[in-house]
Amino acid sequence: MELDQNLIDAAIDQISRRWPNAEQAVAAAMYLEGGQILTSVSLDNFNAAANLCAETGAICQAYTMDRQVTASVCVSREAGSGKISVLAPCGICQERLALWGPTVQVAVPGPHTASGWSTRTLLQVNPYYWATQFTDDGHWPSTADHSW
Ligand SMILES: [Zn+2]
User: Where is the CMP/dCMP-type deaminase domain (predicted)?
Assistant: First the structure.
């Protein structure tokens, strides 16, 4: 399933369900192969070292279900303005999403687009993915390769 506005809206809806009145909040949404959507929210903790990115819950759920993630978005509601922004996946979430290969689509902020976001693949976001150095022929490691 291709990344689209419906997936962005699912993440925004997740923010509204979990934190209808919070000034600042972050949520993620992912398409699984076949079109199912998983959503999750960031886990905030007094000890910042225990915090988890919004994508983490959906990634763990997809992995638990042994399902392929095809697209991922992360959105933030900004304090003060309440403006919704698309966040590119952080480096750790890029690593987590790498389980499903270089063609996983992610939303990135796109200031030159009407929607305010655009789509990139993990390979476009991370063209020098380090783990390709550890495969026999330099290919992006498969889901099975990641499990050893
Ligand atoms: Zn992250």
Answer: 1-101
